[in-house]
């Protein structure tokens, strides 16, 4: 997961605002043309990278995700999901969630989860830098938040009302979005191993920094945040 900076396109914003005023102005009632326009804008904004798993996506295999789920109702019975269906800042482009064989991930797995937990919001978001800065990766390719916690311990964190934000984010990554399903974890592991081999003899920190800057300035690289994280660690170890 990497930071996404939302850029509200003026023309799309005006179209969505106009539709929102309509009594039938819901996401489900958008025309195919407008949904396609929205998806293209989101893909361009995200450099054609899934907002959650960081795989490459395009118009054929991507879909539009609502950060605040369309049916979400908060603890005070406010219909925030309904109110934000056409809020551009609530929309992301994500993959089809089907790259892990029989397991779903990203918003497809989240949709199944929220059918059973309609009042639970998503705590992890690629729109907040303070959260993205604490996304980390183990040498085995697992993604985690803040400090590493064993999966069996995360699976116990079900009563979200009693959890703090960090615990809820850990649960989102592992259980709601399923970002450690075997294929995603394996792809990250292969990248980490290749990176270790490639940089094994790099003792000059300027060489590491140059490669780090290269990836940091190329937002369209698949799993770019994995590379940035491990190069940053190597740079610190060389100091």
Characterise the protein shown here.
This protein has 239 residues and is mainly alpha-helical. The chain has one domain (10-183). Helices cover 44% and strands 6% of the residues. The protein is built from 10 helices and 4 strands. It has helices spanning 10-21, 32-45, 80-83, 106-116, 129-132, 151-154, 165-176, 182-199, 205-216, 224-238; strands at 63-66, 91-94, 135-137, 143-145. The strands form 2 sheets. A two-stranded antiparallel sheet has the order 1-2. The protein has a two-stranded antiparallel sheet with strand order 3-4. Strand 3 and strand 4 (143-145) form a beta hairpin. Helix 9 (205-216) packs antiparallel against helix 10. The longest helix is centred in the C-terminal third of the chain and has 18 residues, at 182-199. It is globular, with a radius of gyration of 19 Å. 32% of the residues are buried. The model has no long low-confidence stretch (mean pLDDT 90).
Brief overview:
The protein has 239 residues and is mainly α. The protein contains ten helices and four strands; from the N terminus they run ααβαβααββααααα.
Task: Produce the secondary structure layout.
Blueprint: H1 10-21, H2 32-45, E1 63-66, H3 80-83, E2 91-94, H4 106-116, H5 129-132, E3 135-137, E4 143-145, H6 151-154, H7 165-176, H8 182-199, H9 205-216, H10 224-238
Cα radius of gyration in angstroms: 19 Å
Query: Within the largest sheet, what's the order of strands?
Result: 1-2
Compute the number of structural domains.
1
Helix content: 40-55%
Distance between the termini: 27 Å
The amount of beta strand, in percent, is 5-15%
Q: Give the biggest beta sheet.
A: 2 strands, antiparallel
Coarse shape: globular
Number of helices: 10
Which structural class matches the secondary elements? mainly alpha
Give the rounded overall mean pLDDT. Answer: 90
Count of distinct strands: 4
Low-confidence stretches: none
Order of helices and strands: HHEHEHHEEHHHHH
């Amino acid at each position: 997961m990497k930071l996404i900076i939302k850029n509200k396109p003026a023309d799309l914003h005006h179209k969505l605002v106009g539709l929102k005023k309509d009594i039938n102005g819901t996401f489900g009632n958008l025309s195919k043309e407008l949904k396609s326009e929205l998806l293209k804008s989101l893909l361009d904004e995200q450099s054609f990278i899934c907002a959650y798993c960081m795989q490459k996506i395009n118009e054929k295999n991507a879909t539009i995700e609502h950060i605040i789920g369309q049916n979400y109702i908060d603890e005070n019975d406010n219909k925030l999901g309904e109110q934000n269906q056409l809020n551009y800042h609530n929309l992301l482009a994500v993959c089809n969630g089907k790259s892990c064989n029989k397991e779903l991930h990203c918003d497809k797995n989240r949709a199944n989860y929220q059918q059973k937990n309609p009042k639970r919001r998503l705590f992890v978001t690629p729109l907040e830098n303070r959260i993205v800065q604490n996304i980390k990766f183990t040498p085995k390719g697992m993604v985690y938040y803040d400090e590493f916690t064993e999966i069996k311990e995360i699976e116990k964190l079900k009563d979200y009302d009693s959890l703090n934000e960090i615990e809820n984010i850990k649960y989102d990554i592992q259980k709601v979005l399923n970002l450690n399903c075997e294929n995603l974890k394996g792809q990250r592991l292969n990248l980490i191993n290749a990176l270790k081999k490639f940089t094994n003899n790099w003792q000059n920190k300027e060489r590491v920094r140059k490669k780090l800057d290269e990836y940091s300035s190329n937002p369209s690289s698949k799993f770019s945040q994995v590379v940035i994280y491990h190069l940053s660690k190597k740079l610190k170890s060389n100091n």
